[in-house]
Design a protein that fits this description.
- The complex is a heterodimer of chains A (402) and B (404).
- By secondary structure, chain A is α/β, with parallel strands linked by helices.
- In chain A, 18% of the residues lie in helices and 29% in strands.
- Chain A contains nine helices and 21 strands.
- In chain A, the strands form four sheets. Chain A has a nine-stranded mixed β-sheet with strand order 5-9-6-8-4-1-2-3-11, with helices on both faces. In chain A, strands 13, 15, 16, 17, 19, 20 and 21 form a seven-stranded mixed β-sheet that branches.
- In chain A, α1 runs antiparallel to α8.
- In chain B, the strands form four sheets. In chain B, strands 1, 2, 3, 4, 5, 6, 8, 9, 10 and 12 form a ten-stranded mixed β-sheet that branches. In chain B, strands 14, 16, 17, 18, 20, 21 and 22 form a seven-stranded mixed β-sheet that branches. A three-stranded antiparallel β-sheet of chain B has the order 13-15-19, with no helix packed on it.
- Chain B is elongated and about 80 Å long.
- Chain B has 404 residues and is α/β, with parallel strands linked by helices.
- Chain B is 24% helix and 28% strand.
- Classes of the chains: A alpha/beta (402), B alpha/beta (404).
Chain lengths: 402, 404
């Protein structure tokens, strides 16, 4: 099993190089993505340690680059390290074994905020949390919502690592004024639509422990302290970028194509929907799935499930006289991803009216809170006394008898 | 990506050979779990085309065997086909493409119920659509609740495909036999049945009483596959009656050489197994050093939990559902919150293994001194009575502290 270390950064080259060199013996690939605000002529340290060095056009929030950056990593496992993180030597040593496990998808790793110096860390809430930094590069299971303070979507099974921490240097390498400005710009003043629920709650304490009153500190083990101090000592001028080295600059559009919170253009909203089932006779009030065949004719991948952009199947019901019976029928999550051109069946959950009769069933796709696709297809749904009833929580394919 | 095909069956060997034969070209492995009642001749036929054959003592429900059976398979993907099913030509052709996919974990396959003969299928509800989760990627996400009429637990992302499996039971088995099967299903204890799983059982198995639309013809390409299986079945049956033949093997004709797996071994992987008292042993220790919370917050408190019992805890929301829970007690020991939030284990924990758990805690709304008691609970069964009691101080809200 191979490991890719990935690092989005605007941090000083000497420090970044010192951090990533710790991981060099165990990483099969180190991918460094440099913020476009950094001078591209001064990336010598970055180039010295990266197997793949790229630049990206920066825009808030920082989390928008995660999915794109992971997509250009080739390892079986992905480890994120920031330019102000120091992996403990124990973590570095454990990585090959962790990546060899076949019974786990993710490792939330104990994250320690160093304060007020390299010998101690903040050992109480909210600073003593775990961060899912090591995860399997499985396109079926890997998902990053891309909101501020959001990490990868949790996946079962995972294993929490407490003995192999990652140390966070923020309170050591940034003064109070810098941290207060970061807090104001990124969290307290940031765009509300990109914030994770409750993410503001602890931000003030996180970034300004000086204002938190008495805090409980834990002692950093000697080996870890040695590694941290070596990183902190890494200083000096930036080095020029090696002559002839091509460093691709990824545009905002290329990055946002992977970002869950992006806006879609009209070319995304093209689809063909057809109804597969022949039998559309329902009992009064019956809830059951109707198979529809969906083709993505647009230029954007629909991720499916509850993932954004949240594209789902939906329906409307009309009485024979055109009266709207259900203007907003149940939504059905797409069971899986639909890349452009993909065709698959979706079991659309339909609730029949209570009153017998013929109804017009109109099926469409909807990008929730944005728009309908207007790729409607229609069929006649008949409510009769025949058939059986299924409860709302019934699942497709439940009867899998041997 | 490799493919294992697996099957639990007591069907006649020629039938199973004909049913699974088309898959041989695309499967890297065929695994058959034979009902221990089948005779050695049948077993020999199984062994002639399968890569691995095991014999197992059968006890209902059949879903008892699913986790164990899939555990025998080595492929990246596993396709389960039952002894009374035939894969369609389009499914066989699609399998290499489906198993090359890395962006999904499961494929739902439509089952077409053949009736009244091998040339027709029932294209009306509830027989159509009747999707079953049969093609699954092997991995730690794969889990079977083991309840009657349940398949693997749904995992996202999945895909519904149109290439089908044909189910021959309603075309080949006499009505009386199917009615007996329905009766047996309905007699299963409710706690071993998938919720509402038996609601449609009678309708499914007795289409002569319920189907109202004309059946649809099977496509010619599939007709040949199905008839090959049907012919094999009739050839294997002295009286031309599949059901009576299948059930005539109550006793093996002669001892078979393949060892028989006892049902106890299967049960070790069955989610619905009963745990004995030795399962309920654990120790809980704190990892977090702090003993302070802020009023009203919901925080994880990190614990180290060790399984000192003799059973594997599956973790997550899987049965047997064993989770971390807590109570809040007053300083004098009075119970203030008897049933706090539950936290699932993030992974399975075997006997003798430890696990770190971020146990979510809802903190009381009133500042003061409390005792926070953690324990494990087997939901709806019992507490472990392995409590960890910690004295905790609940502080006023951060804003109040700041202003003061």
């Amino acid at each position: 099993m191979t490991i890719s270390v990935w690092c989005p950064t605007r941090d000083p080259g000497p420090r970044l190089r010192s951090i990533l060199e710790m991981l060099r013996p165990v990483a099969d690939e180190i991918v460094v993505a440099v913020d476009s605000r950094v001078d591209p002529a001064l990336l010598g340290h970055h180039a010295a340690v990266a197997d793949r060095l790229v630049r990206f056009e920066y825009a808030d929030p920082m989390e928008r680059v995660s999915t794109w950056l992971m997509s250009i990593c080739s390892g079986d496992w992905l480890l994120r390290i920031d330019g102000d993180d120091v992996p403990s030597p124990k973590l570095v040593a454990a990585l090959p074994q962790l990546a060899a496990a076949d019974d786990v998808h993710q490792y939330p790793i104990c994250y320690r905020w160093l304060y007020p110096d390299a010998s101690t860390y903040l050992n109480e809430p909210p600073w003593n949390y775990t961060s899912t930094r090591l995860l399997r590069n499985d396109p079926a299971r890997l998902w990053v919502p891309g909101r501020i303070h959001s990490g990868p979507e949790p996946v079962f099974p995972s294993r929490i690592l407490t003995e192999t921490p990652i140390y966070h240097l923020n309170a050591l390498v940034a003064d109070v004024a810098t941290r207060a400005e970061k807090l104001r710009r990124r969290y307290l003043g940031g765009p509300e639509e990109f914030k994770s629920f409750g993410s503001d709650r602890d931000s003030r304490r996180f970034y300004l422990p000086e204002q938190a009153g008495p805090v409980t500190l834990g002692a950093v083990p000697e080996d870890d302290q040695f590694a941290i101090e070596r990183v902190l000592r890494a200083a000096g001028p930036e080095l020029p970028t090696p002559t002839g080295l091509e460093i691709p600059l990824y545009s905002r559009a290329e990055i946002d194509a992977h970002w869950a919170e992006r806006s879609l253009d009209p070319g995304a909203y093209r689809a063909v929907v057809t109804i597969v089932d022949r039998d559309l006779r329902f009992m009064p009030g019956q809830h059951r799935p109707v198979s529809i065949r969906v083709t993505n004719r647009g230029d954007t991948r629909w991720p499916g499930g509850q993932r954004k952009p949240l594209v789902r199947a939906a329906y409307r019901l009309f009485a024979p006289d055109g009266t709207v019976v259900a203007a907003e029928g149940y939504r059905t999550d797409l069971p899986g991803p639909f890349p452009p051109g993909h065709v698959a069946v979706v079991p659309l959950l339909v609730a029949a009216p209570d009153r017998p009769g013929s109804y017009r069933l109109q099926v469409d796709l909807v990008h929730e809170h944005v728009r309908w696709f207007e790729a409607t297809t229609e069929a006649t749904l008949t409510v009769t006394g025949q058939g059986g009833s299924l409860p709302l929580d019934d699942r497709v394919g439940q009867l899998d008898a041997v | 990506m490799t493919l294992s095909v697996c099957c639990v069956t007591d069907a006649p060997g020629p039938w199973v050979a004909a049913s699974l034969g088309p898959l041989r070209a695309v499967a890297d492995e065929v695994v058959i779990a034979a009902d221990a009642r089948v005779d050695e001749d049948t077993l020999g036929l199984y062994e002639s085309f399968a890569d691995r054959v095991v014999r197992v003592v059968y006890e209902p429900p059949p879903e008892r065997y699913m986790a164990w059976l899939h555990g025998l398979c080595k492929g990246d993907w596993i396709l389960r086909v039952d002894g009374d099913e035939v894969p369609s030509r389009s499914l066989v052709d699609a399998l290499p493409g489906l198993t090359a996919r890395r962006d999904v974990l499961q494929f739902h396959l439509p089952r077409r119920w053949l009736y009244p003969d091998l040339g027709h299928w029932i294209d009306e509800w509830p027989w159509s659509p009747n999707y079953a989760l049969r093609l699954v990627r092997r991995g730690p996400h794969l889990w079977f609740p083991g309840l009657l009429h349940s398949g693997p637990r749904l995992a996202f992302p999945s895909e519904f495909v149109e290439a089908c499996i044909y189910h021959l039971d309603t075309a080949l088995t006499p009505r009386a036999t199917r009615a007996a099967k329905v009766a047996a299903y309905l007699a299963t204890p409710p706690d071993l049945v998938e919720p509402s799983g038996n609601e449609l059982t009678e309708r499914f198995y007795l289409p002569e009483d319920h189907a109202t639309l004309p059946p649809v013809e099977v496509p010619p390409a599939d007709r040949a596959l199905i008839e090959a299986t049907g012919s094999a079945l009739f050839a294997a049956s002295a009286v031309g009656n599949a059901a009576s033949d299948r059930r005539s093997h109550a006793q093996p004709r002669r001892p078979a050489s393949t060892p028989i797996i006892p049902v106890e071994e299967v049960n070790m992987l069955w989610a619905q197994r009963r745990l004995d008292v030795d399962a309920y042993r654990a120790s809980i220790a704190p990892i977090d050093a702090h003993r302070q919370f802020t009023v009203g917050e919901h925080r994880p408190f990190r614990l180290s939990v060790t399984n000192l019992g003799n059973e594997r805890w599956p973790g997550g929301e899987r049965d047997p559902l064993i989770r971390v829970a807590y109570r809040w007690l007053s300083g004098t020991g009075a119970t203030l919150v008897p049933e706090g939030f539950r936290t699932a284990f993030p992974s399975s924990v075997g006997p003798g293994e430890g696990c770190v758990v971020d146990a979510i805690v809802a903190v009381p709304e009133t500042p003061g001194s409390y005792v926070l008691e953690f324990d494990l609970v087997h939901e709806h069964v019992r507490w472990f009575d392995a409590p960890l009691r910690l004295s905790m101080t609940v502080k006023p809200a951060f804003e109040e502290q700041s202003s003061s």
